[in-house]
Amino acid sequence: MELNKYIDHTLLKPNAVEAELVTLCKEAKEYHFASVCVNPCNVALVKKELAGSDVMTCSVIGFPFGTQTTQVKCAETEQALKDGADEIDMVINIGKLLEGNTSYVEKEIAALASICHAKKAHLKVIVETCYLSEKDIANVCVAVEQAGADFIKTSTGYGSRGASLEDISLFKKYLKKDTKIKASGGIRSREDALKYIEAGCSRIGTSSGVKIING
Question: What stretch or stretches form a coiled coil here (predicted)?
Answer without folding.
Answer: none
